Give the backbone structure.
Amino acid sequence: MTLLDIRGVSMAHGRHQVLRDVDLRVETGRVYGLLGPNGSGKTTLLKSVLGANDHTGAVEHARGLRIGRLIEYPAFYGSLSLRENLELHARYLGTPLGEVPGLLEEVGLGGRADLRFSRTSLGMRQRLGIARALLGEPGLVLLDEPTNGLDPLGIRDIRELIRAVQSERGTSMIVSSHNLTEIASLADHLLFMREGRIVRRMDASEVRGDLEELYAAILGEGA
Ligand SMILES: Nc1ncnc2c1ncn2[C@@H]1O[C@H](COP(=O)(O)OP(=O)(O)OP(=O)(O)O)[C@@H](O)[C@H]1O
């Protein structure tokens, strides 16, 4: 089933064209890896999916689709506990508060539910951000550089968490990342962006050899 149908989406910041005629169809149960250099338009595309910017073209959502998101650093209240932060967001979304303890367990924060947010590490914040993105059982989750700023073990932990969430729930995801190992292990469909366009798309099963070499061949200087 098609969850999201993006057709001819373009977006400019002033005279700077950030997205150019992007088409993308997102299907149920698939994980899309969004790759591209800094400034290629990945975050802007994810924001267009959410209707959070002034793009042209069409973004059609399947009826009743809930979209969870972890885009940039999510805002949480430092003086509230992890549980209170999630409950506050659940109230804002109108989703059941009873979901919160299970979600904290699912992201590995069950034993830390009463810790104040201001006392958490970046890895814990990303876990909490993922839990927040899962409130209300979304059909699609957007993760924008979910391991940004983490150390190698933190990157591995978050990657494994995302894989576990995906395999347990079967949720469709769009994950943007500069970390090719992460994308290679998570995505089943790869989208390469350059200067606001999707210049190449392929199934992960089509990747032969090293993803870094493929990335350079598609997106490197002179490609
Ligand atoms: N609010 C804004 N005002 C002006 N320009 C913006 C704004 N937001 C983004 N841009 C510009 O749009 C372009 C695309 O930015 P975007 O954040 O979508 O790229 P990205 O591929 O996500 O990059 P990165 O990998 O660095 O996160 C960049 O050149 C950026 O400077």
The pocket of adenosine-5'-triphosphate is lined by residues 13, 16, 18, 36, 38-44 (CB under 6 Å). The radius of gyration is 17 Å.
